[in-house]
Amino acid sequence: MDYVRFLDFATLVVMFIANFLIFYNIYTFNKFENIPVLDVNSPLIFPFLIALTLLILLVSIIVTHFRFWREYEVDKETHLEEVRDFKNVVLYFVVLLVYVMVVEKLHFKLTTFVFALGAMYVFSLKEYKAGFLKRVGVMAVVSLCLVYVIEFVFYRIFLVNLP
Fold this sequence. Notes:
This protein is mainly alpha-helical. It has two domains: 3-72; 77-157. 79% of the residues lie in helices and 0% in strands. The protein has five helices and no strands. The longest helix has 31 residues, at 76-106. The radius of gyration is 22 Å and the shape is flat. The relative contact order is 0.07.
C-alpha cells in the first residue's frame, strides 16, 4: 500500500473515530443525564445533526474513494508532486512547533514575521514564478502587513496580550 492510500485510509479511520466519539457522547448525555436527543429544544439536537451529517459525508467519501482507487494508476510525476507536498506540510508543522517554542523569547512581531514569510515561501514555490528577490519582497510586505493586522485585531480590539 503506497503512502497516498495509507493517508486516505488513516484519514477515514480518524474521521470514523471522531464520528463514533460524537455519537457516544450524545448517547451518554441521553442515557445518564436524561436529555432528549430528537427534541427541537434539546441542547443535543445540534451535535446530533452535525454527527449525522458527518456520518453521511463519511459514507459518501468511502464510496467515492473505493471507486477512485479501483481506477487509480500510479503516475510518477504526480507521485513526486504528492511527495513534495507532503514534505512541505511536515516541514510546516515542524516550523510551527519551533515558532510556538521561540515566540515568547524573540517577541511576537519578529517571530510571526519570519514564520509567515517562511510559510509563504515554502507553499508558493510552484505557484509564484517571479524572480527570487521580487517574490521574497512581495512576501515580506505581505508578512509585515499580516503581523500588524494580527497585532491590531488581537492587541487593540480584543485586548489580548501578545508575547
